[in-house]
Amino acid sequence: MPFRDTLKGIVESVEGGLGVIIMGYDGIAIDEYFLDNAGLDLNLMTVEYSSLLKDVRHTADILKAGGLEEMAVNTARSRVIMRTINDDLFLALILSHDGNYGKGRYLLRRDAYGLNDRLS
Amino acid sequence: MPFRDTLKGIVESVEGGLGVIIMGYDGIAIDEYFLDNAGLDLNLMTVEYSSLLKDVRHTADILKAGGLEEMAVNTARSRVIMRTINDDLFLALILSHDGNYGKGRYLLRRDAYGLNDRLS
User: Fold this and answer.
1) By C-alpha distance, which of B71, B65, B59 is closest to B112?
2) Which residues contact B7 (CB under 8 A, 6 or more apart)?
3) Any domain includes B32
4) CA of B74: which chain A residue's CA is closest?
């Protein structure tokens, strides 16, 4: 799994990091790094959220709001940050509710560019 | 419009603030404060995003991720932050792309509690 080091680096660099995944808008995972003891069904979570992200991208398109860059959903138990890599792929980071949201956003933004180069 | 001062205070306190709205999950606006020269169709934007927010809440429910607290969507032209007030209502803040996202999140979190007291 060629991207494992990058993904592991993200999860281990952010307080409360539970897992991160490179996923296609078609719902197919390219690579992932999940902690075993996350206590949430991270796979199901990323599949469900990827479907939402597709809807959000479509809505942003209708609204002429410009290309989708990032979407975040915070609930009582988790924080999920999704960051566009390119037209086909995105990164999704799952944090615990008390995870470091700002740092998570920063790491995704930083690594999305490099991943785009490697995936194009 | 009884909440106008609160809403105006949010928009004018955050760099890049374009508008803020108190909206029901049924898509009906309770009160709003929009700048005239926002350059985006803020009304359409809030209606479209409120529909997405309902889907996200439903998904969070399926995932047993706990109650939805916040959702944010950043595109090339705008940043939209939505914050739950209570089971029926939410706040949506629209910022320009270079708006102060962190401060916007803070102001919504701070004022959502007070608005819940006044709206309950």
Assistant:
1) B71
2) B20, B21, B22, B31, B32, B33
3) yes
4) A70
Nearest to A48 among B63, B71, B74 (CB): B63
Residues on chain A touching B73 (C-beta within 8 angstroms): 56, 60, 68, 70-71
Exposed/middle/buried for residue A113 (C-beta within 10 Å: 0-12, 13-18, 19+)? exposed
CB contact under 8 A, A65 and B102: no
Higher pLDDT, A51 or A104: A104
**Structural domain count of chain B:** 1
- Identify the domain containing residue B49 by its residue range: 16-119
Q: What is the pLDDT of residues B78-99, one digit of tens each?
A: 999 999 999 999 999 999 999 9
Q: Which of B51, B75, B102 sits opposite A66 (nearest CB)?
A: B75
pLDDT score, position A45: 84
Q: Is residue B27 one of the residues assigned to a domain?
A: yes
Neighbours of A38 (CB within 10 A): 16
Residue A79: CATH number of its domain: 3.30.450.30
How many A/B residue pairs have CB atoms within 8 Å? 87
B53 vs A: CB within 8 A? no
pLDDT digits (tens, 9 = 90+) for A7-32: 999 999 999 999 999 999 888 899 99
